[in-house]
Specification:
The chain is of the alpha/beta class. About 35% of the residues lie in helices and about 25% in strands. It is built from 14 helices and 20 strands. An eight-stranded mixed beta sheet has the order 3-6-2-1-9-11-12-10, sandwiched between helices. Strands 5-4-7-8 form a four-stranded mixed beta sheet. A four-stranded antiparallel beta sheet has the order 13-18-20-19, with helices on both faces. Strand 4 and strand 5 form a beta hairpin.
Length: about 425
């Protein structure tokens, strides 16, 4: 007997028929002799609709009350799913995040999991029940208020529960048949990746691949919890995300030969250039300290060579577009203190990234990537690299062309169409 944690996204339970279909899959897993814990998202676009409703009531709703509102979406899903399982003749119990023992810090809207104490879940499993847990939510350790975990929170809930329960596997069900070498909406010939390491998946998630959230993969790697990414709309085998050694053993020599795992892209970033920064010790540190105090996460950073005639340099960096105006405001407040000349803001950019553990030992990857992008007529604005990733910033109108050219350059296309998007959202 195995303990299986399953997570179903909003597109999988978007309507009554979807809830019934998911219930049948859960019961089938139970009938094979497994204990089953299920984490469920809100139905369809419920969370976005609740946010819209809150904004109609208040332009700036209190974080505590917004969290209380948004957690209702998952509570609806969990109760309906438990009812559907009961109709199939099996005992199911639904639990909110707090009832399931998901303990977080007090940061409303983007809380982080501190601990998971799944005593009630363990007791229900011992009594033979299927446990249904509301994803995306927990309870603050200090205030005991309900909190939400932010985007991808249900994925993180599932992996955290799986780790706390010492589960055998965490299955993430969405509306695509696994993880692909590129977004099938841009590259219809994208190939399904059978196995991928935590390391490569972290890079793909950080670079915009939306099938798994970054925090979820970080948690899985920390606790070495294998993730099986599958579609709830089919019985296809999906993709395994696991430790690199285990993935290599499971895949045999093929894992060694794969230079590139995939191409990811991100349309949600903006670029700020601080023009004419005095080239003196500590000026860059001051700029980034100001941004840190404003709680703004930066991605790529480039500093130009100082101009000999002026003794000044330009510093460019990318950041989430949603933080763009806050960053500009924070920097303008210290303009005179730092002594830079001006700020430039550009939100018409996109990031395209090539990811693969094999590039460590294969020279020529960078040259081939840049050659492919140049042949597509795309100009590169910024470049950033790690051991297993090369990222470039391009104009947002050139993202699709850059992704397609990079994908083709590394022979990632499948012989036949493998990617099917069943629900339309990719989550």
């Amino acid at each position: 007997m195995a303990l299986v944690v399953q997570k179903y996204g909003g597109s999988s339970v978007a309507d009554a028929d979807g809830v019934k279909r998911v219930a049948q899959r859960i019961v089938a897993t139970k009938k094979t002799g497994n204990d089953v814990v299920v984490v469920v998202s809100a139905m369809g676009d419920t969370t976005d609709e609740l946010i819209d409703l809150a904004e109609q009531i208040s332009p700036l709703p209190p974080g505590r009350e917004l969290d209380m509102l948004l957690t209702a979406g998952e509570r609806i899903s969990m109760a309906l799913l438990a009812m559907a399982i009961a109709n199939l003749g099996h005992e199911a119990r639904s639990f909110t995040g707090s009832q399931a023992g998901v303990i977080t810090d007090g940061s409303h809207g983007k809380a982080r999991i501190i601990d998971v104490t799944p005593g009630r879940i363990r007791s229900a499993l011992d009594e033979g029940s299927i446990c249904i847990v509301a994803g995306f939510q927990g309870v603050s350790q200090d205030s005991k208020d309900i909190t939400t975990l932010g985007r991808g929170g249900s994925d993180t809930t599932a992996v955290a529960l799986a780790a706390a329960l010492n589960a055998d596997v965490c299955e993430i069900y969405s509306d695509v048949d696994g993880i692909f070498t590129a977004d099938p909406r841009i590259v219809p010939s994208a190939r399904r990746i059978p196995q991928i390491s935590f390391e490569e998946m972290l890079e793909m998630a950080a670079c915009g691949a939306k099938i798994l959230h970054l925090r979820c993969v970080e948690y899985a790697r920390r606790y070495n919890m294998p993730i099986h990414v599958r579609s709830s709309f089919s019985q296809r085998v999906g993709t395994w995300v696991r430790d690199s050694i285990e993935a290599s053993e499971a895949e045999g020599d093929e894992m060694e030969q794969a230079i590139i795992s995939g191409v990811a892209h991100d349309r949600s970033e903006a670029k700020i250039t601080v023009v004419g920064v005095p080239d003196k010790v500590g000026e860059a540190a001051t700029i980034f300290a100001v941004l840190s105090d404003a709680e703004i996460n930066l991605d790529m950073i480039v500093q130009n060579v100082s101009a000999a005639a002026t003794g000044r340099t330009d510093i460019s960096f990318t950041l989430p577009r949603t933080d763009g105006q806050a960053a500009m405001t924070a920097l303008n407040k210290v303009k005179e203190r730092i002594g830079f000349e001006s700020l430039r803001y550009d939100d018409r950019i996109g990031k395209v990234s090539l990811i693969g553990a094999g590039m460590r030992s294969h020279p020529g990857v960078t040259a081939r990537l840049f050659g492919a992008i140049a042949n597509a007529g795309v100009n590169i604005e910024m470049i950033s690299t790690s051991e297993i990733r090369i990222s470039v910033i391009v104009d947002q109108d050139d993202i699709d062309a850059a992704v397609q050219s990079a994908h083709a350059a590394f022979d990632l296309d499948a012989d036949q169409v493998e990617a099917v998007i069943y629900g339309g959202t990719g989550r």
